[in-house]
Amino acid sequence: MAHTFYGTHVTRWRFDHEIKSDMVLVQDQNQVVFVAPDESHEIYLKTRRGSGQQAADELFLSSHLILEDNDPRTAATRADDYLDQFLETLSVISSAFYRIKRRVMVADWTPGLTRRRVIIYKEFANPHVPLYGLSQDLIDSVAKLSVNPIPLDVRLAMARWSRGVAATSSPEQFQYFWYALEILAEHLKPAIRVPSKCPHCTGDLYCQSCEKVPLHRPYPKQALQMLVQKHVGENHAKLFKIMDEARNRLLHGEDRKVIERELDIGWEALSDDLGRLTWIVLLDTLRQITANGSPDGVTLEFLQSNTFVHYHVELGTEGEFGAHHADPANPLIDEFQPNLEIKMIVNEHENKGQQSKTN
After folding, report:
1. What is the pLDDT of residues 116-141, one digit of tens each?
2. For the segment 300-324, what is each residue's pLDDT rounded down to a tens digit?
3. Cα–Cα distance between 236 and 226 in angstroms, integer?
4. Which of 73, 95, 71, 99 is nearest to 84 (CA)?
5. CA-CA distances (angstroms) from residue 168 to 21, 82, 171, 268?
6. Are 118 and 317 in contact (CB under 8 A)?
7. pTM above 0.70, yes or no
8. Is the Cβ–Cβ distance between 259 and 246 less than 8 Å?
9. Where are the domains of the chain?
10. Strand 115-125 relative to strand 312-322: parallel, antiparallel, unpaired?
């Protein structure tokens, strides 16, 4: 969400985030401070108490990152990167889990001010979820699928696909969907023998000594490519190439944003494409298992999603609040904690679930 800050001389910003973590500050410390070696930014961490009934619900880390930049958009990007890097390093140092739960506020933190411009953020869940779609017919389909034993590797693929659907990050979804498709490709691998391919031109490799093209059972990658070809059609080669390269670079530790930029992809769209493909293969496999065990035929009902992306709504309200600092030239975090209630009213959504049948 883009916002406009008025003025051209604002150079100091404070970015507040709520951090979900396995660890908070030791009880005798009000705050801890990280100062970047190059002095590009400072991060102040405090323990805050929420409204939950248990310690795991009540206590969280409040992060306050301060940096200087004349452009607020550039400052916001830098702040996100700095905080991510800091929490990743802290996770290794402390052997604990840290995750940015939400952005709380951005404030003009220029020393000397007695009134400060701020944007206060409130995050809301997707107002169109959950859908009114779960019916007895779908539960009956689960029962019909449960009649015949489902092989362990297919169940493992189902578990990976389910984790992908639940994942909130599209690159993470992509990885789980890929794992599921790899498992299914190995399970469905045909008994045919295929030639090895040249890594440059993809032509069949030829042995001059034997004067033959050596054949073998499909390697895992070949089995996966054959599965994509079967279910995608004429654009299978392009889709597989993009997915395969994205998968290789992602699993070898390359930055997700760099992969997205250099491959000219969007993780949301790519994850959706792979998710739908994996779902089709999984459904086709389950239908075949059911058909083999039920000679008289069984009718299954199912729902197909048009996206697996988890959306949320973030509202930012810009305003100006009085700042009462003991020393305005040296403002303290605890001296400025504006609180503003933000509500979103949404009309009740219609049932948008689409139900289909298959035999």
Report:
1. 888 888 877 666 667 777 788 888 88
2. 888 888 888 877 666 777 788 888 8
3. 9
4. 99
5. 17, 22, 9, 11
6. no
7. no
8. yes
9. 12-126+311-353, 148-293
10. antiparallel
